[in-house]
Amino acid sequence: MNGTEETFAAPLEEIHRKGPWPFVTYRRFRLPDEHFVWRSRRHRKGLVRLPDQRSSPFWHRPAYNWWTGLSFAIGASLFMLGSLLSLVPNSLESVQINLIFFAGSIPFTIAGYLQHFQSANTAEFTGRAPPAAPDRAIRFIGWQPANAGWWCTLTQFVGTVAFNFNTFDAIHAPAAWYAQDLVIWVPGMIGSVLFLISGYLAYIEAGHAHWSFKPLEMEWWIVFINLLGCIAFMIASTIAFIPKGAEPAWIGQVSNANLFTGAFCFFTGAVLLMIEARMDWEKTAHLSLSSEPAVQSGGVSLS
User: What is the pLDDT of residues 122-151, one digit of tens each?
Assistant: First the structure.
């Protein structure tokens, strides 16, 4: 593992795995006196230590996840403020409101990259002892095509960059309608599509299936609320298209209302991320030998 010191007395015996095709997001291993449960999302965020793991790199420490959540929360707050000011009468000019949106896009991008950097530097857990001389090179983007979390964080990060262009170009929008669509609407649509892809990947990674309903699990609420925010952003971006002629006044209002809803969802998810970062998840990874059946619905048993 990059940046960690780990030793395993012997290869772990994998007895169960599952996940939304083509990804594996849940694996269970048999230890001498218990089962160790590996979950993709908790692994990439460093929420649970592996058996015999002695230390964690800085990107797997609670403070890293907490500050990432805070950065998301700041960006979402500014988007909420900008969309609210767009909905209610006030003395601010459109340039000033658009500056608020652009300011909000910056912490979004920072948080998005922090999450991707974390994912890119989380090595795959094979259940076997690490090599004698592990590769400790830092990966800024990485390449993990079989990892749902890697794709999730990459698409989210690229989406935030698209919103940087979208919000910056809106500060001083060009006069022509087609130019506005080209430099404002198109980047916004690209960012929204990538956010939606990212949100769904996070949802299936945490739920271990293409559809799941787990209201008792905090991480399910985090990814579900985030997915709702992505859907709201998608709606807001789609109807924000600038036509050649005049458009009904309700178009802008509905777009900004959905933008506010999406930002509120992102803010809620970010706060939950901060809470999650400070919680102890170790007990969820260690189960007694009789606490879980060998075969689970939607999974594949290896025993």
Answer: 988 776 544 444 556 899 999 999 999 999
